[in-house]
Amino acid sequence: MANIVAIVGRPNVGKSTLFNRLTESRDAIVDPTEGVTRDRHYGKAYWNGKDFSVIDTGGYITGSEDVFEEEIRKQVRLAIDEANVILFIVDVQTGLTDMDEEVADVLRRCKKKVFLVANKVDTGDKAALAGEFYALGLGDVLHLSAQNGSGTGEILDLITEDFEVEEKEEENEENRLPRIAIVGKPNVGKSSLLNALTGKERNIVTPISGTTRDSIHTHYNAFGFNFTLIDTAGIRKKAKVQEDIEFYSVLRSVRTIEESDVCMFMIDATEGLQKQDLNIYYMMESNKKGVVVLVNKWDLVEKDNKSTIKYEQIIREGLAPFNDVPIIFVSALTKQRIHKALEEAMRVYENRKRKIQTSKLNELLLPILEQTPPPSYKGKYIKIKYITQLPMPYPAFAFFCNLPQYIKDPYRRFIENQMRKMFDFEGVPIRIFFRKK
Predict the structure, then answer these.
(1) Percent of the chain residues past pLDDT 70, beyond the cut
(2) What is the pTM of this model?
């Protein structure tokens, strides 16, 4: 059985701070504002030879006007069901509250191992304040300062006591799972797609822009697929990002793009390709990521027998010059073609890893380049002699020639187009370097 620890409690008691400390990351957004975390947020932790997963949850609240209240509670309950150990976090500075008692009532009925942790115990005098939490009837109260790490080791010893020791396999490019990120503007259906693919209400979905704040990692292993699927916060124009929380959400989305292998780039079929969509697309292209374009909410568009062809043509014109990408028309709501999207994402992943033998490159490309050489420059003729693929995580090629400085961008695009005709690099940007022979 997988070792899973869920961190639960009312808002603003330090759950995300503890999550970041246990996972040795800054993956969860930490802010004094209540209700920052909404979805279940997963991370990996390691203690004394024992691997386990950690789930950060939103603050459990009742009786508020927050439109996300019921959805957050649902995510908390799902996390409790998944976990085999629960860390119930309370705050000694605020003391025992009615919401703490409501969370305790839920945990008493869950029949899981529960550890009651009093957070923000930074000094000895605050340790005495933790005594009132014995009234919750959940056993001993553990002392912790998630901010400075005090008490973390003792808590880790307790929660991992019954966990099995596993061999920790070093992650490298050969054995790590492919990373597929779902990216796009706010409210295009990213979380709905993740929920549809996993068959679970993994993320909160509402019509409100900015519902997802963290980048949410999910291990997807079904229908012959095995990869890490990442839902990201919607990326808006900088001028429209006003909250600090949203600023950090966007930063995490950008970082997720940088760390991913393939991006499933979602656009809203009812809005079409807009300027902010293109900004996100150029970000993926500049980072040399594989791209699959998903036109979501296709079920809401009035169609005739040529709608798909016309819409695809408009998108490719907007994405030019790099428009050699798969375009799939999907509906996260009706699950239309969502598994086709996964197939294309994995095909693009394989295209991005493709290695071509040097002999084959020279045999196929050199005759074309000799027949159509680069234009002469000030009476000087350029001759390409040799081609090889560079050892990079995306397709990159070096063309050795006598005068590399005189080769212009139009000829670079000509070479790229020839390579795309010969080899399947659909969905993947190609880098071409000209070097002195």
Answers:
(1) 80
(2) 0.60
